[in-house]
Amino acid sequence: MRHAVPLAFGLMIGCSKPTGRVVRVAAAADLARAFEELGKAFEAKTHITPVFSFDSSGLLAKRIDEGAPYALFASAGKSYVDDVLKNGKCDASSVRPYARGRIVVWCPNGVQAPKTLADLADPRFKRIAIANPDHAPYGHAAKQALERAGVWDKVADRVKFGADVQATMQFAKAGAVDAAIVALSLAVVADGGTSLPIDQADYDPLDQQLIVCGFGEEAEAARLLADFINSPDGREVMTRYGFLLPTEK
Questions:
Q1: Cβ atoms of 198 and 103 closer than 8 Å
Q2: Cα(31)–Cα(167) distance, rounded to whole angstroms?
Q3: What pLDDT digit, counting tens, does each position of 44-72 carry?
Q4: Which of 7-11, 82-86, 117-121 is predicted with the least confidence, judged by mean pLDDT?
Q5: Residue 177 — φ and ψ, nearest 5°?
Q6: What's the rounded Cα separation, in Å, for the pair 96 and 219?
Q7: Which distant-in-sequence residues (6+ apart) come within 8 Å of 1 by Cβ?
């Protein structure tokens, strides 16, 4: 039996207390640490404060479709950018790739990471967490990797679903599971723990795209932020958090 992990969603984070011009950003949960750093650098340069909502890409796309006033959507999966284009609230000409994500098995202190993905079938991994594959690209990739390793059927009854990949990582940090498949961008800044990189051939590419939504001054600020993310300064930050750049393989 699979269990949903009851964790809060829609985390709102501003780089600092907004006192002037702001840009509201819907960002995939794997971007939490990288975008917090990027946002501070962008604010220092432009005096525009990004206000981030981090969640699974699918849930963010749904909110945009329901009218949430985000000016920039940074998705962890191309399909969810395609979804928001259907409602006519986002600018198709602004779509651009900004990163390719990677996944790892991460284990909390006291648990040795498996040597191969197939080793997760070992009984010592009593509980395994992944993000909900129904609306989280990193969860979909995690399930796909387990299927391709031939172990999904062996571990499915031990799998707990986090609301998004950041919530899944927090759940693992608390020691509530023995292993979690999460974004490399979150694992590289984790204190302690052990990890196993997952071969990118084991899951479809996590090609991440962004798109500007809405109109007016805030949309223009979103375009400036999109440019900054893809600038040399922005790409340096993304690379440090384990993301590949759009042109890398």
A1: yes
A2: 12
A3: 999 999 999 999 999 999 999 999 999 99
A4: 7-11
A5: -135, 165
A6: 15
A7: 157
Give the per-residue pLDDT at 249: 62
Q: Could you tell me what percentage of the chain is helix, strand and coil, using 3-state DSSP and rounding each to the nearest 5?
A: 40, 25, 35
DSSP bridge pairs for 97: 209
**Cα–Cα dist 195/61, whole Å:** 30
Tokens encoding 178? 């023995």
User: 33 and 185 in contact (C-beta within 8 Å)?
Assistant: yes
pLDDT at 86 over 60: yes
Closest by Cα among 209, 203, 155, 200 to 180:
155
Using CB atoms within 10 Å of the CB of residue 138, give its burial: 0 to 12 exposed, 13 to 18 middle, 19+ buried: buried
pLDDT tops 90 at residue 10: no
